[in-house]
Design brief:
CATH superfamily: Vaccinia Virus protein VP39
Order of helices and strands: EEHHEHEHEHEHEHHEEE
Strand content: 15-25%
Structural class: alpha/beta
Number of helices: 8
Strand order of the largest sheet: 5-4-3-6-7-10-8-9
Helix content: 25-40%
Shape: globular
CATH class: Alpha Beta
CATH architecture: 3-Layer(aba) Sandwich
Length: 259
């Protein structure tokens, strides 16, 4: 792990960074290797948007309507492990002031180019969460979706993410549960049978159970208050929220302090 200043160590897995950086323009090819992520994106965006509106909105004085054109206006948001910007860009369209970070310069190049072509303003940076923390940065909302299963030290990474959340802010995370079901579906099924993603994209032993993730968030001063499973419907070829967290799940926690 590389030093990033003031004693912080990067939890970046260089092999995984290289694997995702090699995707290049395929990040935005909706029928390419990122097709599952594009299919998953509407569920993630809706979940993040609705939780933010409920948390930061005041039903009487300052309501936040999720259906409004810019429901996230006035909030700063950090997307860690932004890749090609598949999540960061839509969140910026919802009005948030978005910073997207990724340790792979190639990913940042792809994300920046696509945002410019789409007329969307996102502050993309080729850096790490640890480096931002060393700079003293904080944000109203931090997202790290489908990232914790790709780092070298899950607990250290989650703690860093938590410390980047301003008091009263929110931390969103999504990952894969470490179960026999996830091995069968996310590894064998998705990588070797259906070929949704390249073989070797995931390592089952690095999947994170909900209890492990909740404990790691709590250690960073963040209280997890909601969790939702995400399941694939083959008949509709779409993803949706579910109570089933055996494979994919996402969650949100609040940082101590006034909202």
């Amino acid at each position: 792990m590389a030093e990033t200043g003031r004693g912080h160590r990067a939890t970046v897995d260089e092999a995984d960074v290289a694997r995702f950086e090699a995707l290049g323009d395929d990040w935005w090819a909706e029928r390419g290797s990122m097709r599952p992520l594009h299919k998953l994106n509407p569920v993630r965006i809706t979940y993040i948007r609705d939780q933010i509106c409920q948390h930061f909105g005041d039903a009487h004085a300052h309501p936040r309507d999720p259906r409004a054109p810019s429901p996230l206006a006035g909030l700063t948001l950090l997307d860690i492990g932004c890749g090609g910007g598949i999540l960061a860009e839509p969140l910026a369209k919802l009005g948030a002031s978005v910073t997207g970070v990724d340790p792979a310069p190639g990913n940042i190049h792809i994300a920046s180019r696509h945002a410019e072509e789409s007329g969307v303003e996102v502050d993309y940076r080729a850096t790490t969460a640890e480096a931002l923390l060393a700079q003293g940065a904080t944000f109203n909302v931090v997202t790290a979706m489908e990232v914790v299963e790709h780092v070298t030290d899950m607990r250290a990474f989650v703690k860093t993410c938590a410390q980047l959340v301003a008091p009263g802010g929110l931390l969103f995370m999504a990952t894969l549960n470490r179960t026999l079901k996830s091995f069968a579906l996310a590894i064998v099924g998705a990588e070797y049978v259906l070929r949704w993603v390249p073989a070797g994209t995931h390592q089952w032993e690095k999947f994170v159970t909900p209890r492990e993730l909740e404990d790691a968030m709590r250690a960073g001063g963040v209280e997890m208050f909601d969790m939702a499973g995400v399941v694939y419907n083959p008949l509709r070829d779409s993803w949706g929220k579910s109570r089933d967290v055996d494979v994919n799940y996402m969650c949100v926690g609040r940082c101590g302090g006034a909202g």
